[in-house]
Design goal:
about 150 residues; 4 helices
Length: about 150
Amino acid sequence: MTKKEIVKAISEELGLTQLQTKAIVQKTFESIIDTLVEDPKHRIELRNFGVFEVKKRAARKARNPRTNERVDVEEKYVVTFKPGKEMEERVSQLMLDKERQAAEKEAASAQSSPSAPIASTPAAPLSDVPPESPPAEEIAEIESPPVSSPFNQ
């Protein structure tokens, strides 16, 4: 969903013009940014929504994955967001609803399928089954060298 879509939905629900709603939404976003930058705690807590917080990431050594060259990454400040309890619960409920719908759909399709048992063919002896993967020599040629990343150090 984009900011424009948010503005449209809010304006329709509240009966305001989209220009009025856009100004309100934009001012809200600007206030969040200003507070994160200017507030001594660099933290905004919105009950039942979540917490925005500025955190300092320490300087570290990393590796350029293309050249495998070591690089120094300077310390920096990043914005983090931790969802509130209500948001966590509603998102969890969304997942449960999707799982329930999938289970109901599967049960419905199982009921509508024919009840006659499916004939199975006997399995071939293992000695008659050709290998499904190429020999190890071919695998070694296919694999690329491992790529180092700051995430796997």
